Amino acid sequence: MAKVRIDPWGSFLIKDYEKLIGQYGLEPFTDELLKKIPSPNKLMRRKVVFAHTDFGRVLDAIIHKKEFYALTGIMPTMDKIHLGTKLVIENMKYFQEHGAKTYVLVADLEAAATREVSLEEGRKRALDFHIPAYIALGLDPKKTIFYFQSTNEKVKNLSFIFSNKVTLNEYRAIYGNSDPSRIMSSILQAGDILFPQLEQSMPGIVPVGPDQSVHILLTRDIANRTKSTFNFVPPSGIYHKFTPSLDGDLKMSKSKPHTCISIPDDIDEVYKKIRKALSGARKSLSDHRKYGAIPEKDMSFQLLMQHFIEDDKELKRIYEEYKSGKMTTGELKDITCEKLTEFMKDFEKKMEKAKKIVPKLNFIQ
Ligand code: TRP
Prior knowledge:
With 365 residues, the chain is an alpha/beta fold. The chain has helices spanning 10-24, 31-36, 42-45, 55-63, 83-97, 108-115, 119-136, 153-162, 168-175, 180-194, 213-225, 227-230, 267-276, 285-291, 299-308, 312-324, 329-357, and strands at 27-28, 49-53, 69-74, 81-82, 101-106, 144-148, 204-208, 236-240, 262-263. The radius of gyration is 21 Å and the shape is globular.
């Protein structure tokens, strides 16, 4: 990943994500593909989803109502959610609503091995926060299968069996790192991703950020190399762009809290952060009125586009008014703050409800 410097602005953004596609052998998410997808979600329509791996199989399953699954993992390292995770859940929700058997696992073993979060702590955080948060963000708890890595014997057995399907040299070439904890976690992750196919071979989709695409490629290799034993269908991937940091950097990160919005977040703090966020405004108001703003470079606009405005017409109106200079940066930021307040309040409400459901959920062993 270090080789590509991605600039989240305007056309640079497009060019650098293209480089990423080339470097990792991903397939671009094209207009032709988009046209075939039944009622695509806003991330697909707006090309926040920029690449995929072998999505055709999954599309075919959706269109012809054949069995397929969607799967994601929770890293229970924090007690907040990152906006990037919100994008994953939005795509998971799309697939769930289009017939996917849905799996959400808690990567408690990975968190223990790579972040020193004890299994007890990981379990507690997942039950108290992450799982209800995934439900609050739109997953249907009745239609979602949950499990913990640490208590799923089948997943652990799979990963043990898979361990002789990758060499250390290959591993280093893929990951550029060969810490035993990372090796174990990524092979365990391959176990997670293929586990739903133990009962029945079927296409699967794993929506992730581009930094996680390597896991999917590794899992596909493993599926191909265990064909004679398991007959797994190599899983498909769908990749979304990062949510940029409020200062315009490639990726929002909790290591720079002033430029990062998390879920939940304190609304007064959010206002302050939005006020300071990088804007696409001109140097003076008269220039702004004359030349208009550059929405592509504006982090408030990026937030609205990626996360907080569902309706394409509403987004287009804001884009055009801002671009023409009719709308000021202050006005745009007011809209962003309003939408964020609404979102945080709604999340809190849904979270309270979701927490009550957690004890009733079915965890598989
Ligand atoms: N490695 C993922 C992360 O860092 C967590 C994870 C574990 C996962 N197993 C998975 C994600 C399977 C997708 C599919 O967030």
